[in-house]
Known about the structure:
It is built from 3 helices and 5 strands, in the order E-E-H-E-E-E-H-H. It folds into 2 domains: 1-60, no CATH class; 63-107, no CATH class. A 3-stranded antiparallel sheet has the order 3-4-5. The protein has a two-stranded antiparallel ribbon with strand order 1-2. The chain is elongated. It has helices spanning 46-57, 80-87, 95-107; strands spanning 32-34, 39-41, 63-66, 69-72, 75-78. The chain has 112 residues and is an alpha+beta fold. One of its GO terms (molecular function) is RNA-directed DNA polymerase activity. This is Reverse transcriptase. Residues 1-29 are annotated as: Disordered. Keywords: Nucleotidyltransferase, RNA-directed DNA polymerase, Transferase.
Amino acid sequence: MRTKPDQDRPNPVDVFEEGEPKPEPKPSVLGWRSYVDGILVTGDSWDSMCNRVDKPLDVCRRKVAYLGHEVSSAGLEANPKELDAIANIPFPIKLKAMQSFPGSLNYYSRCI
């Protein structure tokens, strides 16, 4: 599509182009490059390319473990493994252990 000379610009300018995207001089990041409606994934072999495809698909996960919590569309939840560890922790005997115990409880206070 070309703009006409009387449309906002003194000279005709290409607005859209058809065909293959022109290679960019910079290397791709993590072996993939995004275009308007897709992602190009490159690799040295079929297996390495398949392994790289998994990274962009992580966005589609329903639940993600992050910093000891599980993040989902429902919000922030405690990781069940971490809660089991806190529930089964022995009562602190030494002063240093007693000082760190409330910190552990405070970290998960929203979920307890």
